[in-house]
Amino acid sequence: MMGDINLSMLETEKLIAYFVGEELEQRKKAGEYKGSFAPVTHFFGYQGRAAHPSFFDCCLGSTLGFAAGVALDNGVNCSAIAVKDLTKHPSEWRVGTVPVLSMLRSHPKVGYKRQQLVVPSQELELTDLPYQVFKSQERHWRTDDKYCNPGPIQFHDVGFNSVSMTLQAVDKADSNITAEIKGLCNAIHN
After folding, report:
1. Beta bridge partners of 116
2. What distance in Å separates the CA atoms of residue 135 and residue 34, rounded to the nearest whole number?
3. Which residues, other chains included, contact 124 with Cβ-Cβ below 8 Å and sequence gap of 6+?
4. pLDDT tens digit sequence for 169-185
5. Choice among 3-12, 48-57, 104-113, 178-187 with the minimum mean pLDDT
């Protein structure tokens, strides 16, 4: 007899990392692989229970993923993908990479040794304007329901049945999207 399976308890990310490690070990023994493998996993349970992505989310996700693939395909690693001008139409977005090393600082952080590099966090003071604006709504939240979910409005949003600009570009077999993204990347760095 089989009971209910709590899917959030299945650590699929660790399972995948384990099997990838096993496969790479077999390839290493066969002389087909010489690298090392040290996976770092993350559980996306809370993100998985979020609302369905909007059209904007889909366009941005496709752009980030495709640009990451193009960057890796061209030997660019140790970088984060950056997309600028997101308030404009997706055809006007500027895509590039930011070296992770440029985001690191050597200043001390609680729990870290001085010589370790960290990505500094952006701290918010309780006296800062953004927190004060947030705090000013507290009294209203005690009596008014500001937590209701209006439903999946993204399914009826503008362009809900459209194909993202990135996917359209991929479908064009005669265009060289790699060269196009390289040009955009160079434009950002200049």
Report:
1. none
2. 55
3. 130, 131
4. 555 544 555 666 666 66
5. 178-187
